[in-house]
Amino acid sequence: xxxxxxxxxxxxxxxxxxxxxxxxxxxxxxxxxxxxxxxxxxxxxxxxxxxxxxxxxxxxxxxxxxxxxxxxxxxxxxxxxxxxxxxxxxxxxxxxxxxxxxxxxxxxxxxxxxxxxxxxxxxxxxxxxxxxxxxxxxxxxxxxxxxxxxxxxxxxxxxxxxxxxxxxxxxxxxxxxxxxxxxxxxxxxxxxxxxxxxxxxxxxxxxxxxxxxxxxxxxxxxxxxxxxxxxxxxxxxxxxxxxxxxxxxxxxxxxxxxxxxxxxxxxxxxxxxxxxxxxxxxxxxxxxxxxxxxxxxxxxxxxxxxxxxxxxxxxxxxxxxxxxxxxxxxxxxxxxxxxxxxxxxxxxxxxxxxxxxxxxxxxxxxxxxxxxxxxxxxxxxxxxxxxxxxxxxxxxxxxxxxxxxxxxxxxxxxxxxxxxxxxxxxxxxxxxxxxxxxxxxxxxxxxxxxxxxxxxxxxxxxxxxxxxxxx
Length: 471
Ligand code: ADP
Known about the structure:
CATH topology of the largest domain: Rossmann fold
Number of strands: 17
Bound molecules: adenosine-5'-diphosphate
């Protein structure tokens, strides 16, 4: 099968979160399973672009509203990522340093989608599946069916995967003419509550809709930033497929980002050494349990209650624990967390920013990973933590609920709580501090979770079965 993945992110080319990890791994494992999976994404000015070689594959012209723009498709030369990688260059629009966060993001990603569909429409053959990821690619199923110029693609099955339903890419109806001429009778396929909504459009137009865990699929019908009725209505074509993790990138026995590699057999000593290195680096006391948080500092991740939760734990369980935080996002939370640096000597440090290497070192050296997320479609951090023998402390929601079993339950290895509140977090940290004293149980939990198989190999077939059902 030939599968074309279209996405705004793909690790290691450009990543802002879990979307990048998934699109960097799923196609690789689909290829390993004997299919032809390719990735198409915008050409940003990231390190990957300058450190690799590309060939020009196609040059075309398309319209964004009245603007006739040139686009170029370049292809990475050596199949370095395990799949063909195509980057779409649109001068001045996509070739920027960051993935998101510009005032003209709506125009940028609309132009990207137009260029992709325009290019695919020139192919002599048709792909078996067009697989779109998140709202930045949400117009594509609509364009393939209702834009006059691309109707030849109407018979190509499209799959839309929701990695995060909170962000939907809304824009006003004044932007309607950005899309190439389309059948105006079909305006309802773009509309949601009087706005153009790319995510809603994809849910309506894609042949199948997936999201990245079973529980999140269910939650979207009750909590999806305004799309609840739509998910209820379309539930027949929606399914949840839990993400995998890239076991080649995330392997404590070969990870080149960490100083001391370890396996299930050597987990206790391996983690001790990594923890010592981490604690030396940030002046933390390695004799105490080390709690970490890694992630975007946004409301979805409940980052706003982190400062109070950490202070509450540090004041009342003095000398019994340390915290290391890595993240970026809401400037106020960044300020609060970094302001606490120095207030709890040897027990607290926050690193504000994005640091891939440090994140690996933290998964390897930490005892506990805290994820109090309000919304978590799948969550990869807890799966990475488990692979590195770090006990996840999570709120029971979305993919966290589907992957973490509380240590009080049969074969449990983590800690779960119900509310994103200082009280629940405090109580859960208390449970962790207690279990940390029990070396035997810690060792059992670590070994148990390291053996759980969340590999992409075990997931790929679910997607292939889904694609086959559309042919
Ligand atoms: P989301 O996509 O909602 O941000 P996920 O749990 O699905 O959350 O994926 C987050 C990914 O981003 C993980 O690979 C995590 O390690 C990484 N990550 C998030 N913030 C940072 C950061 N500040 N530095 C390094 N890696 C980060």
